[in-house]
Amino acid sequence: xxxxxxxxxxxxxPAPLMSLVGSPGRVxxxxxxxxxxxxTARTSAVVSDVMPLTRLxxxxxxxxxRDYVGDEGHARSAALKERLDEFDMLWVRGGNTFVLRAQMAxxxxxxxxxxxxxxxxxxxxxxxxxxxxxxxxxxxxxSSDDPAEVVATCGMEPLWDGLGVVGFAIVPHHPPxxxxxxxxxxxxxxxxxxxxxxxALRLAGIEYRTLTDDQAIVVNGDRTELV
Length: 227
Description:
The protein has 8 helices and 9 strands. The protein is α/β, with parallel strands linked by helices.
């Protein structure tokens, strides 16, 4: 199993991701976390991820999970698995973690992606929401992501469990050590949301890891390290 879970894109250096992947190839870009956004904003978000991936030598193609939502159930999941089998890596961008989780459930991606990871047939690279959705729980993330967007966007109630691929919660966009308040590199409201998420996880007794925008968690087989 190979995972690259970051707070923001490649973190400080894309080298750990590149060493996980080997030679860059085809990458499936999943932007479901942005599905609640206006069409133009969502399109711009996809472009903003495709360009840096292309500069690193990857060949990115969007995989829209909404194309795999329907009444067919198993048939839809099979079609999604066939599509994802085409890629060497999945790139799952940030946005609303609750919307991403719901779209993964509706499309069957929450079953297909863990299966592909167990087979080690691709690398999963996700940042912000794309990282958080791989954890056991989304508890506390409502401080920054609005669960109410799920009903309007996905027609279902929000799910509060993650895919459980890693055994700890992730808190992205954490201010670097030594910075707080007005010195934060992040907007004050974002820093406050991070603090509320950390507090909620601590009170619930949930194991978690914080990530600054320069950091990532790399899982390679039985090794997990912070880079």
